[in-house]
Amino acid sequence: MTETTGSARSATSAREEILRRVRRALADVPRGERSEVDRDYLAVHGARSAGENIDLLAENLAEYRAHVHRSGEAEIAVTVARLLAERGSRSAAVPGGLPEDWLTRVPPEVTLIHDSPDLTAQRLDAVHSVISGCALAIAETGTIVLDGGPGQGRRLLTLVPDHHICVVRVPEQIVGSVPQAFAVGALVPTRPQTWIAGPSATSDIELDRVEGVHGPRILDVVLLGAA
Amino acid sequence: MKDVYLGMPSFPEAARTATKDERLRANLTRATHTIRDKRAKAVTEIEDWAELVEAGKAIKDHTLRHLDEYLLQLEAKVTEAGGQVHWARDAAEANRIVAGLVKAADGGGDQIREVVKVKSMATQEIGLNEALAAEGVAAYETDLAELIVQLGDDLPSHILVPAIHRNRTEIRDIFRANMARYGRPAPEGLTDAPADLAEAARLHLREKFLRAKVAVSGANFMIAETGTLVVLESEGNGRMCLTLPETLISVVGIEKVIPSFRDLEVFLQLLPRSSTAERMNPYTTMWTGTAAGDGPRTFHLVLLDNGRTDTLADTVGRQALRCIRCSACLNVCPVYERAGGHAYGSAYPGPIGAILSPQLRGTASEIDASLPYASSLCGACFEACPVAIDIPEVLVHLRARVADAEPGHRAERAAMQAATYAMTHPAAYRAAEAAAIKARRLLPPDRKLPLGPAKAWTETRDLPELPKQTFRQWWKENHR
């Protein structure tokens, strides 16, 4: 056990020594100095109506090669079913809390797999699609934020399958800008978050953008309420 | 896998070799110009870029000036959220900690023989892969470019696109020759189409993601207020590593902490636009300790010093710690464009490397002593920097340090070699000047070199004055 004690002592001293080094390095900083950061940047770029935000979100998502669809409440089940069919999907993962009425038209040949603790990454690797909601979407950057809330589930659900159908309720889930996504109450910082702007992509080979490396290669975004 | 930058030749020597490699130069030129042009567009798209830069700079400066407090807050929050925090004074200590954590990850069974990795400058800086290999643990890079570098038994040459020196045919050949050695072989009849190469990487790596027990990452930001870590990426390999394995070990430089969640609203605008010229990168992952039922069950954060506190102690040089690793300075640098990333002899190439490496490592070695001279002081890097690091100012400051430490011939020789290099490469010089003139508008009108230890230098050597005409125009008119 002397080894454990030894490494514990060394760990404590590493912490203390780094903190001591930091304080010594900052000898020039007056004690009690408090500086405010000037936030002269804009809260949002340009004035847009709710409808214009929807259009901008759609445009920016499409520019990064997401497929954008608009659907009314009444047609959402048909839309989801159509997107599964168009991609030839045979199976789809369903996070807990996803509205059941989105799934009422899914054809019988598509197996719906509701999330459960035994749905492992290995099993998900054989699942074609996933259907999820989101926490919010940012119009200016074409970004969707997932935070593991109802209808979104564990992060691996929206990661391992190759086809992600993501439903954004508009206009209520849209914010205009990145700063608006950080407004108090918009997001809970400590929830696991995934920010998505278009499907997986790489430009590592001669800077040619290629869609799809490890994340879902097909991202269908349904703007629900924008029919 | 090849070891890092030990025994690297000094910058002028390495640059001389690199500038003779035509393919490397052609790839670099195309790549840097492409990113540079796209970036200019992404930056001009938002009208408050200058204010965002100012805020980014201010947040980072503020954090650095209270670094001890924010590190303690971060430690408390990460611990509260179920994570374990470790402190590493130097590379060897960090490597030892990580190796120990990997070996203990299966409950002390010592059966873990591989980890998956997200591209991380910090782990490259400390040579973690090599250290793990020495312990019998294979570290698989999962970023496509890093995979290319690793399979090619090569060194990265660019912060953002480490395989920028390889073209598609070379990549195909590397995949065909070497994928089988590390796992799933390249598909039969693999072509050199980027989409096919990406598909080959997907298949090769998926096998590894699904079986990995341990992942190692860095982080772009750590939020003191909440204990949240943030990783920005494009390919989804980051999400795989940060989500699927049971144990996650993140090695992060102490300068990566920022005070509040809200501060991300600045950096999530600055970094993607400045780095990949995108409004937003495809994927960003944020996690706070561990979350029940979602992601790794065990999370370790290794806070790395390794020369950062030395850098912090230098009141001129500490601004280098603001760096958010966007690589914009590389893409505008005429010296980098000609010399390539390898010539800088560290994980940090380009202008930022020229000021970071000699501060993190000191200037005792030939390469580190020569790095402050790996510049024509054109100022294009300063103009491009999203956190306004005055790289030329720090370069001049470090030249003074090198000259003071060894007033004899070595510093002079390094300076002369670098100057000769720039003068004998007119295209580089021309590009530098053109970029510098564009940068004028962002510089204060009376740009004086800092005095102090550099006084001996600055009295006789001014920074380029950023003339209204280029040096070449002036030369033409005055030296007929």
UniProtKB/TrEMBL annotation, chain A:
<dbReference type="Pfam" id="PF02589">
    <property type="entry name" value="LUD_dom"/>
</dbReference>
<protein>
    <submittedName>
        <fullName>LUD domain-containing protein</fullName>
    </submittedName>
</protein>
<dbReference type="InterPro" id="IPR024185">
    <property type="entry name" value="FTHF_cligase-like_sf"/>
</dbReference>
<dbReference type="InterPro" id="IPR003741">
    <property type="entry name" value="LUD_dom"/>
</dbReference>
<dbReference type="InterPro" id="IPR037171">
    <property type="entry name" value="NagB/RpiA_transferase-like"/>
</dbReference>
<feature type="domain" description="LUD">
    <location>
        <begin position="57"/>
        <end position="224"/>
    </location>
</feature>
UniProtKB/TrEMBL annotation, chain B:
<dbReference type="GO" id="GO:0046872">
    <property type="term" value="F:metal ion binding"/>
</dbReference>
<keyword id="KW-0249">Electron transport</keyword>
<dbReference type="Pfam" id="PF13183">
    <property type="entry name" value="Fer4_8"/>
</dbReference>
<keyword id="KW-0004">4Fe-4S</keyword>
<keyword id="KW-0677">Repeat</keyword>
<feature type="domain" description="4Fe-4S ferredoxin-type">
    <location>
        <begin position="320"/>
        <end position="389"/>
    </location>
</feature>
<dbReference type="GO" id="GO:0051539">
    <property type="term" value="F:4 iron, 4 sulfur cluster binding"/>
</dbReference>
<dbReference type="Pfam" id="PF02589">
    <property type="entry name" value="LUD_dom"/>
</dbReference>
<dbReference type="InterPro" id="IPR009051">
    <property type="entry name" value="Helical_ferredxn"/>
</dbReference>
<dbReference type="InterPro" id="IPR004452">
    <property type="entry name" value="LutB/LldF"/>
</dbReference>
<dbReference type="GO" id="GO:0006089">
    <property type="term" value="P:lactate metabolic process"/>
</dbReference>
<keyword id="KW-0479">Metal-binding</keyword>
<dbReference type="InterPro" id="IPR017896">
    <property type="entry name" value="4Fe4S_Fe-S-bd"/>
</dbReference>
<keyword id="KW-0411">Iron-sulfur</keyword>
<dbReference type="Pfam" id="PF11870">
    <property type="entry name" value="LutB_C"/>
</dbReference>
<dbReference type="InterPro" id="IPR037171">
    <property type="entry name" value="NagB/RpiA_transferase-like"/>
</dbReference>
<keyword id="KW-0813">Transport</keyword>
<feature type="domain" description="Lactate utilization protein B C-terminal">
    <location>
        <begin position="408"/>
        <end position="478"/>
    </location>
</feature>
<dbReference type="InterPro" id="IPR003741">
    <property type="entry name" value="LUD_dom"/>
</dbReference>
<dbReference type="InterPro" id="IPR024569">
    <property type="entry name" value="LutB_C"/>
</dbReference>
<feature type="domain" description="LUD">
    <location>
        <begin position="73"/>
        <end position="290"/>
    </location>
</feature>
<dbReference type="InterPro" id="IPR017900">
    <property type="entry name" value="4Fe4S_Fe_S_CS"/>
</dbReference>
